[in-house]
């Protein structure tokens, strides 16, 4: 900051600024600890991962990642020795533990389920939310305030409160353990958030733009498409990321309503069993990979996200 | 090009009457200004003509065609918004081409038409710029360009100069009028600024509380206000009113105002006894030492070419426009006289003007009706 800039009374002093910066950095570091621990655990060997006191310095290994993607079976020393040269690093690591790879694990299919369900429900929720928000923003909807509150109220209950009825309903409808069922469920939960967030953004877009477009010879739908939507992209991006984070991380419904073909990664990861209990390095490896897509997305869209969070804080 | 005819137009929002039984006709090629304070219904009327708002009752004809319940896109109109409403995600060229694309015009023709219009408005050098970086005046011209590029039957403008600074506004007033004279399209222009209205309009409608108080030429409206509201709204400072209570016979009458007999212009019809008011513009209030109507100087505003004297009299504070070289000090006792041939007479109860010999013929029936 240049010293000759005009000093405003609301501008904090340099000392308080540096104190604030230090606090923020400290806080950021503290919140990073679990993430850091997960990432390093993924590269530990199973004994290192549960050693006490916990090891910070250790010999890194890809065993966790190998275990995450494979299923293995224990063999006799003679059987392992009789095998030909190992193919790839995973086979090498596995043989050191007197095991051979017998197949692929379910991690990748579960991860794919997560991708399909999270992105599918996000797209649907944002699509429906955009249209609904536009409707509430531009038209006189009877009982609009009550309806909006009603839409929001679906978010107020903890998932567990509705889990049993939804479970029974889904079983009856044949939606249990299907990707479609999960997409519909996450869409239903996310639509309320999408409507509220997007309504704020829509309200900020002056009506004159659509009116101008309608006078210029377009129908309302065309005006919406050509004039309103391009200006709502920031809001749509912010909403999409919020919906995606929810659907990606959701655990309670997933654990109750999926068990096999439609199971997502969150309920799957804690069930990765090794010898003598949970295979912590594999769990940590699965979590690390699971965090990557949302991390990339959030970094790519962080500007929009920030605007989404602080939205409405400052009036122009 | 088209004539706009509005018949018994009425619009309510819940209990609020925004426009009350309006009737007016804008002739083909006229520059028509709707003038009034905010909330008087001028913008609502404009939006109904545009098709952005549907009337509660009444009829709107554009070029002899009933368009009352037609959608905006089905009417051959263009609209310039107060905040321009330039599409921020398109550049100037795309903004201007937008209405032409809706018509399904071939690409080549669009390009040609946009460039031709841009030259007319002298914005051809910024065609490929983004609209968000433009200065106020250029934005204004682009908004106009988008409106005229389609060559519609009529233009509707909602306070298009409202956001520009004063200096630029004067320039745009001239440009707008020039443009109108060149393309000669029927224009409806809404403003709350009487200077804009006076300097541009062929016809003005002064509105208040949803009612058209007066419809006429700028000269009619200034010289012969139909109601006390119009007399008060137009002119700066506004007209002085001197109240009196008397019956008036047709023909020349003289009333005594504070012991001073004032000759009124001859009335066409007799007026019942009741509260009346004489209206006199500041420039028609003359300082005259012989006059029996006296007052003391209360204040003065120096305006350069002239000054406005506020004079405290038995009739309240009156304002007079006098040459700036005459100097007065506060407390000076001065006499006041009226120029009979520029006085207006009002019925103070109804607020309406009484027709006098100086009322133009075409306004007399209106006033007596």
Q: In words, what does this structure look like?
A:
The complex is a heterodimer of chains A (316) and B (369). Chain A is mainly alpha-helical and 316 residues long. Helices cover 67% and strands 5% of the residues of chain A. Chain A is built from 16 helices and 4 strands. Chain A has helices at 14-41, 46-49, 63-69, 77-82, 88-96, 107-138, 144-153, 159-173, 179-204, 208-215, 220-231, 233-249, 252-257, 265-268, 280-300, 302-309; strands at 70-74, 99-104, 273-274, 277-278. A two-stranded antiparallel ribbon of chain A has the order 1-2. In chain A, α1 packs across α15. The longest helix of chain A is centred in the middle third of the chain and has 32 residues, at 107-138. Chain B is α+β, with helices and mostly antiparallel strands and 369 residues long. Chain B folds into 2 domains: 4-228, Rossmann fold (3-Layer(aba) Sandwich); 238-368, OB fold (Dihydrolipoamide Acetyltransferase, E2P) (Beta Barrel). Helices cover 25% and strands 34% of the residues of chain B. Chain B contains 9 helices and 20 strands. Chain B has a 6-stranded mixed β-sheet with strand order 6-7-8-3-9-10, sandwiched between helices. In chain B, α2 (92-102) packs across α3 (107-120) and α2 (92-102) packs parallel to α4. The mean pLDDT of chain B is 89. The A-B interface holds A 206, 208-209, 211-219, 222, 227, 230-231 and B 50-52, 71-73, 77-79, 81-83, 85, 87-89, 98-99, 102-103, 146, 150.
